[in-house]
Amino acid sequence: MRAGGLLHHLGQGLVALLFLLTLAQGAGAQGAGVPDARNQRLLEEKRVVMAADNIYPRTHFAQIITQPQATLFRLTQGVVGRMHGELIACSLCTQLPNALDGSLVTYTDEAGRLVTRAVFDLLPNLRWGDGAPLELGDLEFGLTVAKRYPPLILDPTGITSRIRSMRMVGERRLEVVYDGVLCKEQLFVPPPLPRRLEEPLYSADPATYFQRTLYFTKRTHPGLYLGPYVIEAETAPSVIKLRRNPYYAGPAPYFEHIDMLFGDPAAAEQGLLDGTIDILLPKSVREDALIRFTKERRDSFKVIWSPSSTLTWLTPNFDHPALGDRQVREALYLALDREAMVRDLTLGTSLVAPGYLHPGLPAYTAGFPRYGHDPVRAAYLLDMAGWRRDKAGQRRNAAGQLLEMTVSYRAGDRSVGQALAAAWRAAGFAITLKEETDIIGTFRARKFDMVLSSITYVANSPSMPLYFLSNSIPSAENGMQGLNFAGNRTPGLDRAIERIDRAGCTREDLREAWLGFQKELMTELPRMPMWFNSVGTVFTNRLEGVGNPPFGDPVLTVQRWRPKRAAAPARP
């Protein structure tokens, strides 16, 4: 063989050897047997795959009711004001209005009523995903639709009803006037909706609009979205594909595509291990798997736990013959070993709730009644309330009526429901468990005894007091509107809520007002706070810039996500 041919073959061999070594290094970085397709997908396709949940969001529109809907909303929509329950401030603005520069002012109007004027400086060149500019009419139409429907549908903050007027006072300056005193953390404007696309559908029949909106019937229309991504395709009930919005006015994310998968938690866990999935979002994987990843697989994955202001709580119906009695409610609360429930049911990742506010939130102040596990006092209170044990150990009143109730819960909360039933049966209650497919409908109809559910809120959101106001009880007279599903009528709570509404925006004023509110709540127990959930998210180590913002959804950091490039091999 000639020298040139020999060198040619040696060169081919060296190239092949180097190629094999590169593959081996890539496989070793992620673990033996895992294909290197993940690197190609992250670096070349600029595509990231996340397991989102096992519940497929049929629509998200602007509804933030389930976690999948909320995640989809945050990836595809924009926010004017602070997002409810999250530390995200005006993604469509340069900054939140504030008192320092005069963009947030409280004054008394001609009728002697307090009002708040907020001016939002919007980002330049705001456009929908089809290139059409955002107009004032889109913001006004979003407000019209939000006011047509009850709270928690388009406005989880409860602030929409306070908006008095909205207008542009400059090329990019939106002025919103609210009734009452609002601080910058409370400012909220309902999500804008593309008037040119949606108003004809709404005007045809507002009552059935949610069933006919394009957000439900044609979600791949790019003109529906203002956020960093638009929905490109979907295959129900398992996949939603997003692509980067070329008209997004904020910082552009690195990844051009996001695939959201919905399915079995075990399959999601396996997908992360075999390299077909890069992220497991909260609710997409079992908590025991999160613990396992945390302990055993730190070399390949990063598990980030973040505190959450999502409160798991119990709602008694005050129309129930026994639950309207405060002594019975306290006995129910004392009968629960919440420390053990958190340890056994959430693997210790949740925080037993001292009250209704997370201790990490600014308005939290200690100094209100606390309740631990005290079955002896629980038995005493039930005796004092006239519910005494019979020979079989069950409690009855003087008329012989059984102390019984049905505990309703959402799918996925059965283990918690069973723990509640066991504790309360031991205290002498007759308990029936009922899994609800429509927990919101159950609340609104007020056809329940006790409901286990969760709520996400910010410390000084006006939506929190709305759950307890005497005039906020759903009834036939008000069209079953209002959020006071328990049905409590407590003058002391009403006065405490009024003090919150009139409090100033300084930390001292807010803490004092909210402390009074918490004292009334923990004395009367119109609802019983259980624990604050923690959020666990698993990321492959091949991603950087990931993390959970405090009290926030991990997708809020999506614009910082980047693939981690392999380090250059050391020179010999």
From TrEMBL:
Residue ranges of domain Solute-binding protein family in the record: 119-470
InterPro entries: SBP_5 (IPR039424), SBP_5_dom (IPR000914)
Coiled-coil boundaries: none
A Pfam family it matches: SBP_bac_5
Domain of life: Bacteria
GO molecular function, one term: peptide transmembrane transporter activity
One GO term of the biological process aspect: peptide transport
Compartments, record wording: Periplasm
Gene3D superfamilies named among the record's database cross-references: Dipeptide-binding Protein, Domain 1 (3.90.76.10), Dipeptide-binding Protein, Domain 3 (3.10.105.10), Periplasmic binding protein-like II (3.40.190.10)
Family assignment from sequence similarity: Belongs to the bacterial solute-binding protein 5 family.
PANTHER family: PERIPLASMIC BINDING COMPONENT OF ABC TRANSPORTER
Name of the molecule in the record: Solute-binding protein family 5 domain-containing protein
